Amino acid sequence: MGAIDKWIIEDICDNPEEITSIQRMVDVRVYNLTPTYYTFDVSVKDSISGAYSSEVSDIEIYEYSEQRVSLSGIELASHHIFGELAPKFNRGGYSLVPTPRKIIGEEKPYFFYYFEVYPPTRSLSGVDLEDKLSPYTISRYVLNGAQDTLIVLPVITRNAGITGFSETDTVFIEDLAGGSYDLLINVRDSDNFSFGVQKRFFVHQKELVAGKFDMPIDSLAVEEELYEIGFMMSAGQRKVINKKTLREKAFFLEEFWKLYDDDTTTVEVPLRLTYRERVATADERWQTSRRKGHQTDRGRVHVLFGECDSYDNFPLQPDTKPYQIWIYEYVDGGVEFVFVDRSGLGEYELVHSTRKGEINNQDWYELYVQRSHVESRR
Question: Where are the domains of the chain?
Fold first, then answer.
């Protein structure tokens, strides 16, 4: 038994010279279907010229498990719409325009994708699960026609409850030759159960004309920058932003840095660029086996205030531990920070500062620098 759905799409172009050979009319229809096999017979007719075309596709609708993590299919998009959201194209807070032909590279050297993750709602014994956060690891690969891995995208980790979540990101294809490829996405839960889906796409490689492309969506860059500014946000802000969509998080970053923009005539916020440069410097200088450089005490101070105006370095002595004193002459009228390598592993900890709001301990030398008789004999 079949069903018929009929609708009209209006696409009016006032200037025929603006029409290109790769221009498409894209639309989305939503159907509530039970899991089984379906045949879609889609036809289109130009109401003016009478031109007619049709295509038949066989589609299988899967039944998702309530007891194991599962994924939707992967939706590919050619571009996203800036400004106000288009409801029918809304995918995770972005207006993503699908590319039904799955041909990539005609307009830009990358494409967008979207998929949804459905966590289990019931235990293996059939008991309803509580809505508490659990970690999910997302691995992403680009495969060639022989299913060899060509590109390994960075792993993403998300925490989610039983309501699930969606993912939107960008895949760059400038290094891929023309041909057929697959995007493989695999999600693994805390029980080490995994579920994967693939989507075939075709790269149409040609010399792209330089122009203004859509801004790529980079979920890892957004999460990374939010992580970097963590000690500039309150605990309440961090708790709220963790529940936001990718688009909302990216918007938060833009609004956050506007608060520090002294020159609104420029696109970039100078302090934002300076801040991220300081993070990179801190990561290079002070990264340890346990944490990134900007997460250390010296890294945090460097990121917030930049290079100190002067510093004194005191190496290991028989009766004292290594320590450093950083002096900032123009921060709050002049402040200093004292760092001590208390463990002897090169991880200097902040033990004293004259800046308001930082740790202040007038006895820092006796408490943290001077070594006890037991330590001195080691």
Answer: 65-216, 218-304, 308-378
Contact 293, 284 (CB under 8 A): yes
Joined together, the tokens standing for residue 154 give: 């960075």
Closest CA to 202 of 144, 270, 127: 144
**Max Cα separation, the chain?**
97
Alpha-carbon span 28 to 177, nearest angstrom: 30
Instruction: Name which of 134, 103, 82, 94 is nearest 245 in CA terms.
Output: 94
Compute the distance between CA of residue 246 and CA of residue 223 in angstroms, rounded to an integer: 9
Q: Which of 203, 184, 210, 215 is nearest to 99 (CA)?
A: 203
Could you read off the pLDDT of 28-64 as tens digits, one per residue?
788 888 888 889 888 888 777 788 888 888 888 878 8
d(CA 99, CA 108): 13
Residue 223 tokens read as 């999460």
| Rounded Cα distance, 346 and 313, in Å | 13
pLDDT digits (tens, 9 = 90+) for 169-189: 888 888 888 889 999 999 999
Rg of the Cα atoms in the chain: 28
pTM over 0.70: no
* Distance, CA of 123 to CA of 172 (rounded, Å): 39
Fold entry, domain 65-216: Immunoglobulin-like (2.60.40)
Tokens of 22: 């790769």
